[in-house]
Amino acid sequence: MDKILSKYLSSLLLASFLILASIPAFAEIEKDWTVLVYLNGNNNLDEFGFLNMNQMEQVGSNDHINIVVQWASLKNGKTQRVYVKQDTNSSEVTSPAIEDMGKVDMGDSKNLLNFMLWGFKNYPAKHYLIDVWNHGSGWRRMKTLSFSLEHPFFPTDISFDDNSGNSITTKQLGEVMDQAARSLGRKIDLYASDACLMGMAEIANELSDSVTTFAGSEEVEAAAGWPYHTILKRLAEHPESSSADFGKILTEEFVRFYNGGGESRQDATFSAFDLSQMSSLNQSMAELSRVLSLVKSPEKQKVLQAARATQRFAYSDYADLLDFVNQLENQKLTSIPAQAITGVKDALRNFVIANGSTSSHPRAYGTAFWLPTSSYVYDRYASKYSTMKFHQETKWGDTLKILLKPKNSESRQ
Fold first, then answer.
1. β-pairing, 97-102 with 78-83?
2. Looking at residue 153, what is its pLDDT?
């Protein structure tokens, strides 16, 4: 009788253990990293959300890292919070849903904030990555396919939600990251965009008070986005990584994947910034802005020639900052002191901690910024640009206005 009872109790304990092991409990022990992915599939990228979720499952959470996703799917018509566990099933996502949230407006910045605060509380870690997954258009409204400029009803900046028509502006992104950092009691270790055109000085500046390391792409990203399986494998092998180390991993693995390391070669750029160097970059750009605002014709035309020769991206008014100062230097303008050029170069050397690109972008050095070359384009976006911290710190928008002013409006001095 005792043997029968003992076997029964052993079986019951085993069954209870298996049931409990299958329930996604919230983490209680502080791990090295918690990766929080805000995966907005409420648009035409939905199928790639499934791809990336399966890539994450190739690695899965472990004793050192948590991988947690707020996953909205247009196809499924719902949003779930998922604790990613390792599996070998590449045809479906098997990780447990911690919470089924129904329909969520992923274009509302408050929902991004709520996800971050929930993640901090339930998955404590020494370091956090916030990854916003979706379409991106830099700091301004996206362009239509049929027009060179944006349509007033198209989404803006990042995280486009087709259900609501909403998206998160750069200003809103900065505000919610600031609120999240205050709640956490320290800066967020790493913010990165799995989205197009987000590797810009203007965007990084909005997050510089609340984030330690920033990462993103100067150019558009392939629809398949990050290779999560190789990125997370590297992190799992080196959970002691700092935010700068992780930024380098993101950069290396993203560019390697699209430079022949994945299934096909595609154009790619990626970089990581040390935001503690943001103020130094702003100061150097403020000096360059001041100098350029004083340039007279015909040297003003040479400044514009340098601007037109600068490495451009999918949005033709987005350009590489280091390449611009290189092009200025090549013009050998007597009215621009050498230290105004070298100041920006030195600041960028400290600011960009990782950078990579495929051969299609040989002069993509890591930091994009706004560089329109016509007054028409400038006028379209100048009002919004004036609200950007980068402009407020550097007066770059004012300098652009002076440079792009028609010749016949100049004074005879």
1. antiparallel
2. 44
Residues 286 and 304: their CA atoms lie apart, in Å, by 18
C-alpha distances out from residue 338 to 151, 192, 254, Å? 41, 34, 35
Contacts of 391 (CB under 8 A, 6+ apart): 202, 385, 397, 398
SS3 164: coil
pLDDT score for 408: 46
Domain endpoint, select from 212, 246, 277? 277
From 101, 345, 355, select the one nearest 218 (Cα to Cα). Answer: 355
- 317: nearest Cα among 134, 141, 135, 132: 141
191-223 as b/e, with b when 16 or more CB fall inside 10 Å? Answer: bbbbbbbbbbbbbbbbbbebbbbbbbbbbbbbe
Helical H runs in 23-164? Answer: 46-57, 109-122
The verdict on 247 and 217 lying in the same domain is yes
The whole-number average pLDDT for the span 40-62 is 97
DSSP per position, 276-327: GGHHHHHHHHHHHHHHHHT--TTHHHHHHHHHHHS-B-SSTTEEEHHHHHHH
- Could you tell me the residue range of the domain that residue 398 belongs to? 279-409
User: Using CA atoms, how far apart are residues 100 and 93, in angstroms rounded to an integer?
Assistant: 15
Query: Mean pLDDT, to the nearest integer, of 57-73?
Result: 98
Domain's final residue, options 253, 277, 301 = 277
> 64 vs 27, 34, 126, 337, CA distance in Å?
11, 9, 10, 51
Write out pLDDT tens, residues 124-167: 999 999 999 999 999 997 664 444 444 444 557 999 999 999 99
DSSP state of 408: G
CA distance 283 to 348: 11
Q: What DSSP designation does 153 have?
A: T
Instruction: Report CA-CA distances (Å) from 259 to 30, 70, 250.
Output: 36, 29, 14
Whether 21 is in a domain gets the answer no
